[in-house]
Recover the amino acids of this structure.
């Protein structure tokens, strides 16, 4: 059987996402009721972090342990990667010893190369280009609060970064719209974002116009990991791309606010918004755990038959 990887959002179909969201909600429900669900008791996850992390590290490690599995946490510094061992060789060796690998790294080409030589599923835990696990959790959060995201409008305010690119891919797969507003010079690069067409997003020079009528407003830091040298320049360029109460008022009355975190209050979002009534950022962060448990199960186990028949309940 061909090994499935999760390197970008468009690696799965809409039907597979329906299954995953249903399964994530079931796994979350079991967890909340302290009912053990340990299908991965003989499985090992290796995580390789080349960048910092709080949520990704904790959610994958806790999730794997809760499902009965084992986790090995590696950084490039601990391994021979930092001494020049080729990524192909590292992939060939590690994936003879573990059942699944999660990688947080720089260029998407690194994770693609690793997966090419991997015997087991590889999960993208964030690259410069994409962050699929984040949007998996974000859409689960949207569904829990508001139902299906199909046909809805998401406003992305700020940098056209890895998280933005993944929202844009998700819009194509799950059939919703994204209003993007970035400062000049930081616009979406459709090829880098891995888009099929321009059909599911529209660009707005003024962030207030992007926010108008949106069902969800979301943003992210102005300076992503790896871009630290550009910080001062970006602070100037992005000064007007701050999600504030006026912007939330331009959206639908019941619009949600999301942020993948970590956030910089006073930069891309005001404290009033992120700590206010529209914000679901803590549910969103928690859902990394439940969504990724469903993802690990999906990649490592046959589909659950009972869930196949009951997923319409969600
Ligand atoms: N949102 C997210 O991926 O957080 P971490 O960088 O803390 O993992
Ligand atoms: N765009 C951010 C996301 C962090 C979770 C970064 O890449 O640093």
């Amino acid at each position: 059987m061909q090994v499935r990887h999760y390197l970008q959002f468009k690696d799965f179909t809409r039907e597979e996402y329906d299954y995953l969201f249903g399964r994530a909600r079931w796994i979350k429900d079991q967890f909340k009721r302290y009912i053990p669900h340990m299908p991965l008791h003989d499985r090992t996850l290796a995580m390789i972090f080349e960048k910092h992390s709080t949520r990704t590290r904790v959610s994958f490690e806790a999730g794997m342990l809760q499902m009965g599995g084992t986790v090995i946490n590696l950084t490039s510094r601990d391994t021979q990667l930092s001494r020049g061992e080729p990524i192909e060789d590292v992939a060939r060796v590690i994936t003879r010893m573990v059942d699944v690998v999660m990688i947080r790294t720089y260029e998407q080409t690194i994770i693609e190369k690793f997966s090419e030589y991997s015997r087991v599923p590889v999960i993208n835990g964030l690259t410069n280009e994409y962050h699929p696990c984040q949007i998996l959790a974000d859409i689960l959060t949207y569904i829990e609060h508001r139902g299906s995201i199909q046909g809805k409008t998401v406003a992305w305010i700020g940098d056209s970064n890895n998280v933005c690119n993944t929202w844009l891919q998700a819009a194509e797969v799950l059939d919703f719209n994204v209003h993007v507003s970035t400062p000049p010079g930081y616009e979406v690069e459709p090829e880098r974002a891995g888009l099929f067409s321009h059909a599911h997003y529209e660009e707005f020079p003024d962030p207030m116009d992007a926010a108008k009528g949106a069902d969800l407003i979301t943003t992210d830091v102005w300076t992503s990991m790896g871009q630290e040298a550009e910080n001062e320049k970006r602070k100037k360029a992005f000064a007007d791309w701050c999600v504030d109460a006026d912007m939330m008022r331009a959206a639908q009355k019941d619009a949600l606010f999301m942020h993948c975190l970590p956030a910089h209050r006073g930069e891309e979002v005001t404290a009033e918004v992120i700590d206010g009534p529209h914000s679901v950022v803590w549910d969103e962060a928690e859902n990394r755990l439940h969504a990724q448990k469903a993802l690990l199960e999906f990649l490592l186990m046959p589909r659950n038959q009972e869930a196949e028949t009951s997923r319409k309940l969600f």
